[in-house]
Amino acid sequence: MIQCRQNFSLQALRLLAALALGLSAHTGFAQAPSSYPTRQLTMVVPNATGGTNDIVGRIIATELAEEFKQSVVLVNRPGAGGNIGTAQTKTAAPDGYTLLMTVNSVQAINPALYKNAGFDPVKDFIPITIIGSVPNVLVVHPSFAAKTLTEFLALIKANPGKYQYASAGNGTLNHLLGVMMDQMGGYKMEHIPYKGVAPAMADVLGGQVPIAFASLPSALSNIRQGQLRALGVSTAKRSPSLPDVPAMIEQIPGFSGELWVGLFAIAGTPPEVVNKVYQATATVMQKPAVQKKLTDLGLELAFDTPAQFKVRLDQDIVKWGAIVKASGATVD
Fold first, then answer.
1. Measuring CA to CA, how many Å separate 229 from each of 47, 186, 222?
2. What is the pTM of this model?
3. Which of 171, 179, 201, 213 is within CB 3.0–4.6 Å of 329 for a Cys-Cys bond?
4. What are the structural domains, with CATH classification, of the chain?
């Protein structure tokens, strides 16, 4: 009877060991986190190719591959303003082999804008670091009466609802910046939503709608060619690309809104792995060649630690959630 029990115990232990080994292999922890990475990584961009976060993601993926001595494959999963790819990514194994390169319009605005975004930006992901931020710039058609930010604000204030501004659609950052301007300064403009950035900017360039908040990289060449007049930038300080253009916060206290690009891990990823990815990213971000590539895109570089990034994300979720609510914009 004792022999039978001993045999049973040995068999049970062997079975448990086999199950544990199978579970480790399935979840990606066949090797201890200290040996990470030992195989290919995937970086998901939840938007189409050609966008700011896609371009930034490709630069960082290439550099991380060199740093880790492992390939890093970038995969685009666009749809529903970034929700589809983000929701799919949250289900990946929390082992550091799947990373998310995304923007605050997805992580901080979409959860308030969509009735069901399909993910929770706090519960489903771990912030690693911000790569950089992209200012938006208040631009007007050259024929517009106001030549400076002071003149513009005075004109809008004196004529509530008279002037129109274009955006890439309801709930987009360049829509919500207009809502923020109204909230913080009492300026009222009529919002004209388009189905994307390209048609919105085409009408601003043509003068059909004279005003827009545009990302600096997308508008800089038009500004330099005199096709658009820049009146103010949306960041808390002036942009090095447009040093003579004031920050809007100089005349509207508290006004600040930018598009940041950041790297995330899946919730549950071991802290040692998150730190390894952060340290590797921080290392490649120190390379002058990488910095030049990113700043040439119009990015203002950021070097947030995971803790700093989490604070920034939490603040943005509260900030943009309130602005979305004030705008009344919703997407099913």
1. 29, 23, 8
2. 0.83
3. 171
4. 38-133+258-327 (3.40.190.150), 135-250 (3.40.190.10)
